[in-house]
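#lab-general

N.A. 3:47 PM
ok so I finally got the sequence cleaned up, no stray characters, all 93 residues accounted for. can someone with queue access submit it? mine expired

B.Y. 3:52 PM
send it over

N.A. 3:53 PM
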Amino acid sequence: QLFGRIITAVGSAVAGIHDMVQLMPMLTKLGARHINYGVSEDHWKVLGEALDMTLHDVLGDAYTAEVQQAWSLVYGFTSAVMIEGLRDAIARA
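B.Y. 4:20 PM
back already:
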């Protein structure tokens, strides 16, 4: 269930990449909500590594260097914005 949510969030980021006006606030709010889940900034790095390994296992040879680079770029952007949302939520708590 968690993996599905993560893929949905990343998919939303990819789909919304052309509409930054809506994407940025959505990701910021999503990151802020993670204060309720006990998530720390370090969790995003671990999650990114786990998802990278999962994509490699699932896609096999289709997980080329180009696909991995694109995945890393989108995940890095998404997680950076969400972390800022989490930091803001912590500062307000």
